[in-house]
Specification:
It is found in: Membrane. By secondary structure, this protein is mostly helical. Helix content is about 75%, strand content about 0%. Helix 8 runs antiparallel to helix 14. It is globular and about 65 Å long. The relative contact order is 0.20.
């Protein structure tokens, strides 16, 4: 099997691609409501600590496997395991990662389709002057309309896979270079707007002045799990990108840059969202509905609310689009590694994700009473088990392979930090990151 020939065109392109994979629903949808449910600043501080101790080291492990193998995830793991004299069954970890991303992208596409619907509604001014009851009832009616959910799910997936089909340079890299700066520009614009609201000071205090009386084992566990979810670690997606990484690029610097960019999105989104929520005297712990019910209610009562709500949902759509594009790539790369053409691989991935996504879309109407496991419907299962169990399990196996199985010479070369830097990284991964990842996995199972 020959090495992957494609490369990112620049160091910046690689960083934007990995950031594009990481920045999405985890930062703009999941972080605000998880932070809201877990005490704000205390959760934030613990989350950042786990990004440094858990997220970045395991992210580096995943990327270096792809960089050392220069192939799709399955092929890279198989070749590197063979060179280490280890079992070639390690290659199945690449297939497990592709399955994890497949599950995540199926519900991700459905939820991202909501942002299309809400962007159109915001531009049309549908929320302006509406009561809280009307907005809440409208969201429930939307979820109960399978035709609308399927249309938006299909449209979002078409937008995503069209870019993936164009390839690394013409598709992913070109769109990342365009959309990621635009995403940050919109986010900064919303954060500046937040400074004009009466809730800005309260939001800053709530986000940055921790009260450690709020810290419980559950808060710590949620922070650890979110560090995994938000960095897109554990699904071999970053392994695929490592295969395209420029030879001269510093892996530690790139991983740190991605983590900083990822955290900054969560912080700016938190400032923008909670400033509006507190300005209207609403509850920051409103759960998953914070994005699609609480915010429209809050913005509807503010001057120029329809405009700023439109900007917010445009931001959300761009973030989920770049993330979905970058999550779909490793599945396509895995099939390409089996000898399939890119066009065929993309079509197979698109149709498969679309079909599984239908089950999530129907979970709010036709299949609402179909609860095959743990009393949960399909959407609840697919949106919880892969992020809470599959990602940490994948991260645990990836970290174990990189720190315990791969030949030292290959890891040192892929890391690019010399023997001293390698020993430091290996020590952190073996004795800090892997045990923490195991705790995250247990938390997801219990």
């Amino acid at each position: 099997m020959s090495e992957t020939l494609e490369r990112w065109g620049s160091k910046r392109a690689f960083i934007l691609a990995v950031t594009g994979a990481a920045v999405g629903l985890g930062n703009i949808w999941r972080f605000p409501y998880v932070a809201g449910e877990n005490g704000g600043a205390a959760f934030l501080l613990i989350y950042v600590a786990f990004v440094l101790l858990l997220g970045i080291p395991v992210m580096m492990a995943e990327i270096l496997i792809g960089r050392a193998g220069r192939r799709g995830p399955m092929q890279a793991l198989g070749v590197l395991a063979s060179e280490a004299g280890a079992s070639r069954y390690w290659r199945w970890l690449g297939l497990f990662g592709a399955f994890t991303v497949f599950c995540i992208l199926s519900f991700y596409s459905v939820v991202s389709g909501w942002s299309i619907e809400f962007l159109v509604a915001s531009v049309n001014g549908n929320f302006h002057g509406a009561s809280a009851a009307e907005i809440g009832a409208g969201f429930e009616a939307f979820l109960a309309n399978p035709g609308l959910l399927i249309f938006n799910h299909s449209l979002f997936l078409f937008m995503t896979m069209t870019v993936v089909a164009a390839g690394v340079a013409k598709g992913l890299e070109r769109l990342n270079n365009l959309l990621m700066p635009l995403l940050y520009g919109l986010l900064l614009l919303l954060a500046v707007y937040a400074t004009t609201t009466t809730g800005f000071g309260t939001a800053l205090s709530w986000l940055f002045l921790p009260s450690f009386t709020d810290v419980t084992p559950a808060v710590v566990l949620h922070a650890m799990g979110h560090a995994f979810f938000t960095l897109a670690v554990g699904a071999c997606a970053l392994m695929a990108y490592g295969a395209y990484m420029p030879d001269e690029q510093s892996l530690p610097k790139a991983a740190f840059a991605v983590a900083v960019l990822d955290i900054s999105v969560a912080l700016l989104a938190g400032i923008a969202i909670f400033s509006v929520v507190f300005a209207q005297g609403m509850d920051p712990a409103d759960g998953p509905g914070l994005m699609f019910v609480t915010l429209p209610i809050a913005f509807s009562e503010l001057p120029w609310g329809s405009l700023w709500l439109s900007v917010f949902f445009l931001l959300l759509l761009l973030a989920t689009w770049t993330s979905a594009i970058n999550l779909a790539e490793p599945m396509v790369a895995t099939l390409q590694g089996l000898g399939w053409r890119r066009s065929v691989s993309t079509a197979v991935v698109a149709i498969s994700v679309w079909l599984l996504g239908l089950l999530s879309a129907f979970s709010f109407s036709t299949l609402a009473e179909f609860r095959p496991l743990l009393g949960r419907n399909v959407f609840e299962l697919v949106s919880s088990i892969p992020p809470d169990i599959f990602l940490p399990l994948g991260g645990l196996l990836i970290a174990t392979f990189a720190a315990w199985v791969m030949p030292q010479a290959l890891v040192v070369k892929a890391l690019g930090v010399g023997d001293g830097g390698y020993v430091l990284w290996r020590t952190i991964v073996r004795w800090v990151s892997i045990p923490l990842t195991f705790i995250v996995l247990l938390g997801g199972l219990l």
